[in-house]
Amino acid sequence: MAKKPLIAIHGGAGTMTQSLLSSSKETDYLTSLNAIVAAGQAILAKGGSALDAVTTAVCLLEDNPLFNAGKGAVFTHSGKNELDAAIMDGATLNAGAVAGVSHIRNPILAAKAVLNHGKQVFLIGKGAEAFAAANGIELVDSDYFFTQERYDQLQAALAIGQENVLDHDSQSLSLNHINSDPIDPKNKLGTVGAVALDAHGNLAAATSTGGLTNKVDGRVGDSPIIGAGCYANNNTVAVSATGTGEMFIRGVVAYDVSALVEYAGLSLEQAAHRVVMDKLPKINGRGGIIAIDHLGNIAMPFNTEGMYRGFGYVGDAPKVAIYKT
Ligand code: ASP
């Protein structure tokens, strides 16, 4: 018997600390996280599906320039925005993903269209954009994604020759070098994601990202890779990840949590902790995950200073946090 429906979201992990984040920025993040958890709860409260709840939550995160996905995405080395997203339905194991897209306003909607279409799982670049257009998904000029803050973060990363800056690590980078808010080279990761359990006992997961500041053009991280940055299976868990993508791919992080539950008999909490706090650090993987199971248990471990995160069971007030508690 499933527990109360629930949604959990993240807005990226990294080196954000209370001293680096201004109190007004902190309030902006917490207010946004709260509203987005509430939007997901409202869908689940009406009997909506976990898939719809995670899609809506990730769309809202993509539309919010505070987060590194959709509007507010970070820049590649050559100053482009190349976006990645994935979504998975735990009831059917159907999945959809897009990578390297620069004109789809909400990449998660394109991923969902790939899932719904059912013939392919993963489309990239121009083919993904053509597929999105053919399926009635909004395309935008690439300058839609421009934000001064992310551009300044790229300039700061270029100035110090720092490749692959995690979005929320760049806060420290920005403060040191250009006196603007968010993104850090060693510490600040971006990416957004959501996992949900609905009243029918179904799980779903969704992840969307602009990737890493100053990433090599064409680079794809873990976020759109099913089993690495996103995974859902009604028999085990739903997981969305954020962190240093290369290590999350090598660790097959989201599926590893599922496998530890399925084959090793670990609880959700034990499996999530093992992967994020034990296995990932051994390969220099930095970041965190949000994970839930079909019983409504929740785990949100991260091995960075902070992770923007929130969750809410239907009927309860959302709980949101940034730093370690
Ligand atoms: N995992 C994302 C990537 O490597 C970045 C992040 O989560 O901040 O593209």
From TrEMBL:
Gene Ontology MF, one: hydrolase activity, acting on carbon-nitrogen (but not peptide) bonds, in linear amides
Catalytic site positions: T191 (nucleophile)
UniProt keyword annotations, A-Z: Autocatalytic cleavage, Hydrolase, Protease
CDD domains given in the database record: Asparaginase_2
Sites marked Cleavage: G190, T191
InterPro entries on file: Ntn_hydrolases_N, Peptidase_T2
Chain residues that bind substrate: R219, V220, G221, D222, T242, G243, T244, G245
Protein name per UniProt: Isoaspartyl peptidase
GO biological process: proteolysis
PANTHER family: L-ASPARAGINASE, N(4)-(BETA-N-ACETYLGLUCOSAMINYL)-L-ASPARAGINASE
